[in-house]
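> example.struct
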């Protein structure tokens, strides 16, 4: 079977059977394509004519060695190897080939990488009121990114119908679609309910029929890239760290929750981690006895009545 045909079938399985995230699919597709380009350069074969059975262990090892010489990180090399192993595991199940040439090749040793976070005074600076045109929208965004620990893709995907809010009592929840198309319900802290209410008032002036919670000035759903750019601009305007990213805010949420006494299971539910082991990456900042509730743990859980 041709390599590119097996790749197409593999990507189809990732999308429709495994329900992998678009991020994973894009990475695996790019990694496998990179290997194909490398392999065909060795054999002087056109990519569309390169056979799956042509791949051998030495070819895979040479590919990884080349990546190492290009100073790719161990994490990138490990992902590349994982992509190729997964492709051939799929091909074996489908009887497209008779062995997995990537099997048995050891993945590069990964150093323990701690999540990057912002100190609380930096997140506090981001949450200060400004004169920016869409200040209400940005504060509501921050309430979900930092106040609830949502992924940026989850935040921009929220629709109005996903919200359940009681403005008088300042309670609410939001339904989000996480990795693997898994839904979860996330409770909203008081401050988040307050800031979302303020944004909805301004949002109504856009006269848009789009159901997205967060709209741009043209009445269209905000993109991930626009949120990233907005955070950078806001950081410059408020004196916060300009290295801010949506994912760094998510890590800050988990770290601050843990430091405040929340237990790992609670944080796991908020973050939407499939495995508790993933959440345990934050335990380097633990304080004694992680058994406090969310409302007591998160520094921005309650609305400060003295704030403007």
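> example.seq
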């Amino acid at each position: 079977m041709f390599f590119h045909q097996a790749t197409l079938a593999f990507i189809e399985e990732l999308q429709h059977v495994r329900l992998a995230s678009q991020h994973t699919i894009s990475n695996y597709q790019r990694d496998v394509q990179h290997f194909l380009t490398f392999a065909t350069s060795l054999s002087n074969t056109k990519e569309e004519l390169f056979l799956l059975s042509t791949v051998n262990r030495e070819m895979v090892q040479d590919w990884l060695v080349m990546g190492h010489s290009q100073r790719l990180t161990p994490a990138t090399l490990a992902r590349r190897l994982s992509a190729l192993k997964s492709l051939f595991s799929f091909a074996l199940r489908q009887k497209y080939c008779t062995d997995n040439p990537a099997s048995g090749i050891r993945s590069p040793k990964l150093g323990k990488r701690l999540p990057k976070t912002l100190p609380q005074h930096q997140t506090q600076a981001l949450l200060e009121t400004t004169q920016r045109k869409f200040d209400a929208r940005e504060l509501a965004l921050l309430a979900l990114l930092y106040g609830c620990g949502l992924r940026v893709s989850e935040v921009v995907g929220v629709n109005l119908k996903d919200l359940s809010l009681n403005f008088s009592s300042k309670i609410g929840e939001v339904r989000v679609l996480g990795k693997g198309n898994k839904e979860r319900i996330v409770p909203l802290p008081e401050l988040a309910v307050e800031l979302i209410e303020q944004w909805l008032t301004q949002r109504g002036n856009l006269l848009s029929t789009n159901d997205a919670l967060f709209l741009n000035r043209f009445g269209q759903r905000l993109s991930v890239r626009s949120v990233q750019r907005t955070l950078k601009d806001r950081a410059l305007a408020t004196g916060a760290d300009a290295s801010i990213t949506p994912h760094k805010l998510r890590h800050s949420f988990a770290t601050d929750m843990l430091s405040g006494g929340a237990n790992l299971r609670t944080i796991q539910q908020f973050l939407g981690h499939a495995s508790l082991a993933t959440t345990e990456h934050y335990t380097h900042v633990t304080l004694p006895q992680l058994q406090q509730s969310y409302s007591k743990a998160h520094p921005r859980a309650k609305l400060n009545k003295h704030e403007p």
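> remarks
The chain has two domains: 3-93, 120-297.
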